[in-house]
Every structure is written in structure tokens, then in C-alpha cells.
Amino acid sequence: LKDDKISFLQSASPVNWHKDSEVAKMAVKLTEKMDTDEKKAYAIYEYITKNIKYNKNKITSLETDYVPIVDEILSSGEGICFDYAALYAAMLRSIDIPAKLVKGYKNDIDTYHAWNEVYLQDQGWVTIDTSYDAVMLEYETSPTFKKDINEYRKEKEY
Asked: Burial level of 94, CB count in 10 A (0-12/13-18/19+)?
């Protein structure tokens, strides 16, 4: 590929969205007055971490072929880490910011996990974990927007 980030701008399973979807409209609304990709990525991150609640019970009822439906996650206001990562990636991709949905492990979580890597100009790929930070906010702990990649072990990326 001429541009190695092009695949992380597309709608493809498990990050399905389209320009008329609610997630795309919300991404535009949240970022319309912002002038940098980092400010846009932060605005969407802040919206997700403050408005989507982690649903601890959802994982027990999912089929093995589960794929998030991002508009449903946005409207229900809840999900698991996979949902958060799919939602964040879809919103960013819909406004032309390359975003990966990544699965693997985080040092202080004992189960399989999902998070994002986002391409920011002059910084390259940065690690962002909306579900982890949403839970931190629930416990009134202040999270950091960008994470240390050394805290994560990547197994798959989409």
C-alpha cells in the first residue's frame, strides 16, 4: 500500500460504521471546532470515557463470534472493552484519523483485553484505552489519555 495507515481509516469488521451512522455524526459534532487530530481524538476519548459505562455482566452472555455494533453501543451507553475499542476506532476513522482496534493483554488485567492505537501527526501511533479509563473514572481516579505501550501485549489488530 502507498499509505500503510489506509486500512485503519476504513469501515471493516469489527469496526463497522458509515458516514450516516450515529457514531459518525457524533464524532463530527464533538470535533467540529477543533484544529488538530490530537484535540479531536481527546474530545472523543473524553466523551466515551464519561458517557459509556462498563457492563461487567455482558461478557458472560456473548457468543464467540460477537462483533460490536457501534451505533447500539452509543445508544445503550454501555459495553465491554471490545465495544469501547470498536466505538472509539469507528468514531476516529469516520473523521479521517487512523485508528486500530487492538486485542491482547494489559499488565494489570488478568483477562483478554481490547484497546486502541491512534495515529497522531508528529507522534506516530499512540496507545489509548477508553474502557480502562472509563472504569478509572467510575472509581474517581484520574486517568491519562495516552498509555505506555509497555503495559500492553498485542496479539491482534484490526
From this structure: buried
Q: What is the pLDDT of residues 110-143, one digit of tens each?
A: 999 999 999 999 999 999 999 999 999 999 999 9
Residue 157 amino acid letter = E
From the list 94, 117, 70, 88, the residue with the least C-alpha distance to 10 is 94
3-state class (DSSP) for residue 116? strand
Q: How far is residue 123's CA from residue 128's CA, in Å, rounded to a whole number?
A: 13
Strand pairing category for 78-79 and 53-54: parallel
Entry pTM: 0.95
pLDDT at 2: 63
Backbone φ and ψ for 35, nearest 5 degrees, come out as: -110, 0
Q: What is the DSSP string of 8-69?
A: GGS-BTTB---TTSHHHHHHHHHHTT--SHHHHHHHHHHHHHHH-EE-TTGGGG--TT----
**What is the per-residue pLDDT across 77-101, written as a single tens digit (0 to 9) for each?**
999 999 999 999 999 999 999 999 9
Phi, psi of 58 (to 5 degrees): -60, -40
